[in-house]
């Protein structure tokens, strides 16, 4: 169903009244051709649509056939910056020597670059983590965010200062400590501070939050 030699594949869904869909389908086709699309396939039947989406949903598994391991990143950017960011990621791929397969939700600018590598090679994971960090920096520089849909967790805490200053981070940690005074909720997923990455902003004692009710 998908051409194996395609550099990129874009799935576009349209809905609405039939007359509206017909007009928009023609418009989408024209835009795609103007931007270098060599082939346009339409799927009106449910079975064909499911088959096309099956290919998209199997993208991560397919990447597993290309490399022993892959590192998945999650960032979000303005949709207007999509083409530029993909070019920057491609340049980063050439510079680093690691192949990067871009799987993303174009409609909302949510990127999932898959950095292909072999974890059995000493130092490869550390190098890939650096590449992943560069991708996050690109996302922030174009007006995006560190996470599109999977949160910060423990993996991205070192990059929080790219978006927030020390006062912001301290304030968020203080608010968190009101609802989580003993640090039992997600203890490994802490706010960093510019002093030391991963160092939790000092959890204030409850008595220091005068007038604040603890839940």
Largest sheet: 4 strands, antiparallel
CATH class of the largest domain: Alpha Beta
Number of helices: 6
Total strands: 4
Named CATH topology of the largest domain? Alpha-Beta Plaits
Estimated radius of gyration: 22 Å
Q: Could you estimate the helical fraction of the residues in percent?
A: 25-40%
- The rough form would be described as globular
**Whole-number average pLDDT?**
87
Can you write the helix and strand succession as a string? HHHEEHEEHH
Total domains, how many?
Answer: 3
Strand content: 5-15%
Low-confidence stretches: 198-207
CATH architecture of the largest domain: 2-Layer Sandwich
N-C termini distance: 54 Å
Structural class: alpha+beta
Report on this model:
- This protein has 215 residues and is of the alpha+beta class.
- The chain folds into 3 domains: 18-57, no CATH class; 67-148, Alpha-Beta Plaits, CATH 3.30.70.2740; 159-208, no CATH class.
- The protein has helices at residues 18-34, 46-57, 59-66, 82-96, 124-141, 166-179, and strands at 69-72, 75-76, 100-105, 110-117.
- Strands 1, 2, 3 and 4 form a 4-stranded antiparallel beta sheet that branches.
- The radius of gyration is 22 Å and the shape is globular.
- The relative contact order is 0.09.
